[in-house]
């Protein structure tokens, strides 16, 4: 059995229904599995209206109320799509060597396509928490020894794989990138180090690292909609100046430095409650979740959360604050020492068709590579994150 496109198409149709793709891609990514989704993002952009002020024509004096009458304050974000691709490649010799074993051929397809699907899912999961820059880590002070780079935050090591191609820049979003690309040849997940084949020109401690081609091209995720620093004058985010009301248009920030994880979360929930928010979830990475579990001790109350889009669920912890309670979930794409508090129905992942899918507009799922003895299958999507009420979401900084 050689690479018969008709037979291969039939295999893919069986193995990769949209439900199976969702089950595969969402199983290790709680927020990606839970965020509401809309798959009809047609046109050049999409308007996301937001109300950030009510009518101020009110007074104990009728004359003054009438004199000061006005309208509510409205704004709109005009979001545009970001592209993301993942390629599954098949070597011609490997394909032909399995031609007498149908099972081997099917396993070859599934192994390579699963890997590309999971790579796309990891990219999306990182992006929906990120700030749009595409940064996946920063080189530590004194973190360059030969071709070995030490990350400033060991938790960021989850974003690196052997053979991954990287680029670097002195600043996260501004200026150009360093000359040259670097390929990862080894990863030490305990030490938080990566070894590259060659260093980019002028690479320096403090440089930001990006997957090749990602810089300033990713979706604008939670840390873009609810930045850790309040928006200031001139901040234009999807066409809207958020500095006129940094909380209503840029979310809530709470400094939990010096507090335990539980105390920071409880006090933070009181702060966001002042905005009238009733958030559903708080997300943190595994290290911070471990701290919370130790602090709660025998008070731990586990709760299960099911994804509305896939046959998967996640176990979380319920934390109470006054009359409110919130489910805390572990998601390793959340930045270290940060708690991201979300009101689920204010968010949406908008995409042009499914956010992760096989790209086959011309009907050809497999394409012959023009410069090698092989074939490729393209996976990807066109999408963007939206939030229609940033004030109902919060970032809590931990020490």
Summary?
By secondary structure, the chain is an alpha+beta fold. The protein has 10 helices and 23 strands. A hairpin with a 4-residue loop joins strand 8 and strand 9.
Characterization of this structure:
- 24% of the residues lie in helices and 32% in strands.
- The chain is α+β, with helices and mostly antiparallel strands.
- It has two domains: 1-52 and 74-132 and 218-399, phage-related protein like fold, CATH 3.90.1690; 135-211, Thrombin, subunit H, CATH 2.40.10.
- The chain has a seven-stranded mixed β-sheet. Strands 1, 4, 19, 20, 21 and 22 form a six-stranded mixed β-sheet that branches.
- The longest helix has 26 residues, at 102-127.
- The chain is globular, with a radius of gyration of 24 Å.
- The mean pLDDT is 92.
């Amino acid at each position: 059995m050689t690479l018969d496109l008709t037979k291969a198409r039939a295999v893919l149709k069986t193995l990769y229904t949209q439900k199976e793709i969702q089950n595969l891609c969402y199983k290790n990514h709680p927020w990606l599995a839970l965020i509401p989704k809309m798959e009809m993002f047609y046109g050049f952009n999409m308007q996301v209206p937001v109300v950030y002020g009510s009518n101020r024509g009110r007074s104990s004096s009728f004359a003054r109320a009438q004199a000061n009458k006005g309208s509510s304050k409205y704004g709109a974000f005009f979001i545009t799509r970001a592209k993301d691709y993942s390629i599954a490649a098949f070597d011609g010799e490997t394909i032909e060597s399995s031609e007498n074993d149908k099972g081997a051929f099917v396993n070859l397809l599934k192994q390579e396509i699963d890997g590309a699907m999971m790579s796309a899912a990891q990219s999306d999961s990182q992006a929906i928490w990120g700030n749009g820059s595409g940064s996946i880590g920063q080189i530590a002070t004194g973190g360059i020894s030969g071709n070995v780079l030490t990350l400033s935050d060991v938790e960021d090591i989850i974003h690196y794989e052997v053979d991954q191609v990287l680029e670097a820049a002195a600043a996260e979003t501004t200026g150009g990138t360093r000359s040259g690309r670097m390929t990862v040849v080894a990863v030490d997940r305990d030490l938080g180090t990566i070894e590259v084949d060659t260093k980019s020109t002028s690479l320096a401690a403090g440089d930001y690292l990006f997957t090749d081609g990602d810089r300033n091209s990713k979706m604008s995720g939670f840390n873009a909609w609810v930045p850790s620093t309040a928006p200031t004058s001139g901040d234009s985010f999807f066409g809207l100046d958020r500095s006129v009301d940094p909380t209503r248009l840029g979310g809530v920030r709470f400094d939990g430095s010096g507090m335990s994880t539980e105390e920071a979360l409880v006090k933070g929930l009181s702060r966001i409650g002042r905005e009238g928010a009733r958030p559903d979830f708080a997300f943190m990475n595994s290290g911070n979740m471990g701290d919370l579990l130790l602090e709660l001790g025998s008070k731990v109350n586990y709760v299960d959360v099911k994804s509305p889009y896939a046959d998967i669920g996640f176990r979380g912890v319920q934390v109470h604050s006054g009359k409110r309670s919130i489910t805390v979930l572990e998601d390793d794409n959340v930045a270290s020492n940060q708690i991201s508090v979300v009101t689920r129905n204010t968010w949406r992942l908008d995409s042009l068709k499914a956010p992760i899918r096989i790209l086959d507009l011309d009907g050809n799922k497999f394409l012959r590579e023009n410069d090698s003895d092989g074939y490729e299958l393209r996976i990807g999507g066109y999408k963007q994150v939206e939030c229609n009420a940033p004030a109902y979401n919060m970032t809590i900084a931990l020490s």
